[in-house]
Specification:
Helix 4 crosses helix 16. With 456 residues, the protein is mainly alpha-helical.
Amino acid sequence: MKSTAQQRAALVIATLAAFITPFMGSAVNIALPAIGAEFAIDAVLLNWISTSFILASAMFLVPMGRFADMHGRKRVFMAGMAIYTAASILAPLAGSASALIACRIAQGIGSAMTFGTGLPILISVFPPQRRGQVLGINVSAVYLGLSMGPFLGGLITQHLGWRFIFLATVPMGIVILILVPVYLKGEWAEARGERFDLAGSLVYGFGLAALMYGFSRLPSTAGILLAMAGAVALIAFYRIETSVASPVMNMALFRDNVVFALSNFAALINYSATFASGFLLSLYLQYIKAMTPESAGIVLVAQPVVMALLSPLAGSLSDRIEPRIVASIGMAFTTIGLASFIFVDTGTPLGLIVAGLVVLGLGFALFSSPNTNAVMSSVESRHYGVASGTLGTMRLTGQMFSMGIAMLIFALVMGRVPITPEHYGQYLASARIAFSIFTSLCFAGIFMSLARGKVR
């Protein structure tokens, strides 16, 4: 049993690390117009400021989780936080969009190293009967970052300039780098001595990046070709992993561990069904309801606030009740919340939008931390890094798929036209189709969540 001081320190460190990345991501998204104006770049290059971070994180999560299982989670966590903090210091000095994108890629790699090790460290120092509780607090920090990012990012951009957004998380990074060596004694490397699968890691990284980015570019020819190349590479990756002695991703975790496999797929479905809802509703509030960005942000914050408040409770519930039950109830509430947006039109009262967001937040809170508890409780400690990395990859891939679905519907229904009053009807039709697809996905996810089996 670890000391209470070490447990508290691990919780503080992991919680701060869990806050930084979503805060930075949502704050930077608010600042994109200001960044685009300063560098005079087009929408495609501007999109890369966000996309480069997501792709880099997704490519490195599983390999870094595996590397940490072999060489020490604390060591990799420290290195990742140092990379992330250094990139955050350098980003404000960027003199071009390309330099800023390079810093965002470095942030993505650092984030993958901390995310793939923070959760494993946390559950390594806490007993299993408290796992759901601390994971709930950790997930709550993620949603707090998502909640505060748009608000504080807007204030910082308006009064200090977008460059100061990157400096906002530097003090937290420095605090973490001080706390880890002082309070976290020892090291966790249950897979020490095993070989690192470099070839598999390279094929995996290319395949995942090509698939995710290609999907976001559909229905263009380049998007189709990239998605196909990514799918082929991932098939090759599967063949490589089943033939090497020390794979970067043990396929037996998916083949023989039903709880692990279905919990990860449930997370993929959940993020694929929910992530673009904020994007669609932001457009709805600003174009259809003629709200200012600040006012729209205040409305949309209802969802992550509910998530942040209820996630610790949901995590604690999953310590006493089977995680699949709590998570499946959460998926059901998420389905109801998404379904409420299928019928939005120009006359929908704002109160109904807020109510739908609250239900969506409740559903996500009940799903996320119990589902994380199920994933991490279903594997041996030597697989904690890979399990955490896999779950994080499902989150990022789901986010990209969700936006890809929305963009594909826009391209097919609206075409490449601006959202002006004469196109509002086409926008609303696109949003209804998207929410119908997301609702159907989430409804199917309920049964996948229920089918995963028992953890205890």
